[in-house]
Fold:
Amino acid sequence: MQDKKPENLKRRGFLLAAGVGSAGAVAVVATGMGKESAKPVIAAISAEEKSGSYEETAHVSNYYRTARV
Amino acid sequence: MSVVSERSVAAASAPVLGEEDRARAEHYAVLSRLFASAPDAAFLKNLPALAASWGSADSALGQAWLLVADAARESSVEALEEEYTRLFMTIGRPEVMLFGSFYMAGFLMEEPVVELRHDLAELGLGRRLGVTESEDHLAALCDVMRHLIVTGPDAAGLARQQLFFTRHLAPWFEAFCDALSNAPEARFYPRTAALVRAFFAIERLAFDML
Structure:
């Protein structure tokens, strides 16, 4: 869902003009994210894990497996 | 839940990202990978390929990408392993700190980390199992930003991104870039400082437009 308010169109134009845009979805693949050697450090915690202990989770790699840009 | 069903759920509910948000998410992914650990051969080889997309003489960000591509071409995996370890991993006092608390409070694991953990808990985020670095590591903060972008490109999501960036990255990235660009006897990482600086400066200006 994209916000079409004028200020966000201005922001979008600024980002594209500044060079943040135009590339295909290659970087995440190029970083090797998802491999053991390059897993994201921080990840989403499921609700039940949050209520138990704050820290770590095994669930989390799921987000990055599914949300590849 | 099987991987397959999770994929379909994610596909059904995944927000559609605009071109600029995709590129922002990818920049955060690249920065996270750059600083999470020394580049492996595949990532090192891919940096010039990424620069072919984003490199340009016309903008600070584009120029920074060209610089990173040159640095990558002149580097070997072995040399980068040594440089990463020496710059960032030295026991006691590394030459360049990757942790926000050091720049914001003067020491590691200070109040900024407490505030960060609170904000992460609110967002339903935490350290991955087995990760020993504290949450204010640059790579971890970039992971959070990427997560916030791909899950929330709408107005509420942008507000979350802005708050997180403003509280946990904006206050210290310039001091970090200064330290990185002046790191002695290093050939690769100082040449990544311009990329960090240019991208975060763009992010800050763009958030100011909200």
